[in-house]
Amino acid sequence: MDKTMTQAHEAQVGGAAKDHRKDEVLLSVQDLKVWFELRKFGFGISGYVHAVDGVSFDLHYGETIAIVGESGCGKTTLMKSILALYPPTAGDIFFEGRRLSELKASEMREYRSNVGYVQQDPYGALPPFMNVQTILEEPMIINGIKDKAERRERIYRAMEEVKMSPPEDFLEKFPHMLSGGQQQRVVLARAMELEPKLIVADEPVSMLDASVRVEILRLMQALQQKHNLAVIYITHDLSTVRYFSERVFVMYAGQAVEKTLIDSIVHDPLHPYSQALMEATSDPDAANATRYRDVPPGEPPSLVKPPAGCRFHPRCPYKIDGLCDVEVPPHFTPKPEQMVACWLYK
Ligand code: SF4
Questions:
Q1: Mind listing the pLDDT tens digit for each residue in 216-234?
Q2: Same domain for 46 and 186
Q3: Residues with a CB atom less than 6 Å from ligand 1
Q4: Last residue of a domain, one of 180, 195, 210
Q5: Which of 277, 310, 332 to mutate to test the pocket of ligand 1 (most atoms within 8 A of CB)?
Q6: Cα 315–77–116 angle (5° rounding)?
Q7: Which end of the chain, N or C, is less surrounded by CB atoms within 10 Å?
Q8: Element at 213 (helix H, strand E)
Q9: CB neighbours of residue 141 within 10 Å
Q10: Same domain, 27 and 89
Q11: Dist. CA 53 → ligand 1 center (Å)
């Protein structure tokens, strides 16, 4: 690889990182609601699935946040809205101060190049009929990088950053010729090559063998730090968030129930649902695995007709009758940097 180009790039990346202080907001999600219509044939709309129901948070440049919750809690819908795949039913998403719903086609293309996406299933994310070279080159062609030499230089740099070195050993291979860990490294390289400001990672290690999960998490941590990337890490597994998240955002039934710092969620989770999730936690690094218990008992509620009051009340051992099942708990802040939606903290 051309050393001059690499040095120029590193100077550029370092400069970009310094341009933005960590207290500047990169992404702002404001009272977002994403509802899906339920239709009965011949009878029109019969109801709505309240997949995301009033979620707000800010993400700063270079900050990492984990969004945690069980299947069906709305975290994937939230992620797809951030990726501009689902339009908001209400509320807004801003990126660098610009409202996503108002972006023109060319601005949307620029937005997509600023947001890298790491999928859960690396094999499903890679076109089986393309080799690694083509898979990595295609997004750059779509994003108007016309210079073949520049594309080649970016591919080599991304491959080396994800530890697929030397790149020549992998570029001609098709996805089925790679291990699960190597496939996920290609997905990461594809997410990194356009030099994004934000990476959205959807359960990036949940489909990998236990032996490579920690390796991929550590690689993501190294990339995040090197490039001062903001990361939204979506997971059902609280045990993995400590690898590179600073803040945790716990979702239940389409809503935020706790927002806090990683140390607080590990040592002092406030919401009964967060406490139950922590109880169900095991560490992906076998050396640190200390506990594994059952997931919170019961099922998440229907998002078509969510329970009145606190949506967790049918499963909550601390439910206050006549309050929790009637009144929606507001957001309390019992400690700085900790928000919890639970009547126990009024
Ligand atoms: Fe449990 Fe009530 Fe708190 Fe909901 S508001 S988590 S039901 S104690």
A1: 988 999 999 999 999 999 9
A2: no
A3: 271-272, 310, 312-313, 316, 318-320, 324, 329, 342-344
A4: 195
A5: 310
A6: 130
A7: C
A8: helix 210-227
A9: 12
A10: yes
A11: 18
